[in-house]
Amino acid sequence: MLAVQARMNRFSDPRVASLFKAYPSAVRSKLMALRELVLDTAARTAGVGPLTETLKWGQPSYLTEETGSGTTVRIDRLKAGDGYAIYFHCQSGLVGQFRELYPFTFTYEGERAMHFAVKDRLPVRELRHCVALALTHHLRKKGKRGG
Q1: Which of 2, 113, 117, 123 has its Cβ near the most Cβ atoms within 10 Å?
Q2: What are the sequence ranges of the domains in the chain?
Q3: 2-145 sits in which CATH class?
């Protein structure tokens, strides 16, 4: 399913497309699958709306600019080795929440990221849940404040 979706989700920002082309092929294919998972999760999650794809800190980033429903999600290769990661705002508390929900499913980096090895299979169901929580983070915060 993700491979079919990859053909449907063209890059809207040429800088992001160039960065993806520059990744080594093994990491590129994994990051493309992760990108599609983020875009597909946004499309399936009520209240999120379309994502803006851009570069932030030199990394492909996905923002809920239109609705303001969530926090930015970034993806990138790891600086060392052949792994890759998905990043969340470190002060959002999201990674701590993910760690409570899925203590043995992911490899966590502090309060900001989950790392993946190229050779490993993505835990798609659990990762979709985490991405949906990030993309609706502000909606839940507003709900707790009563407005």
Answers
A1: 113
A2: 2-145
A3: alpha beta
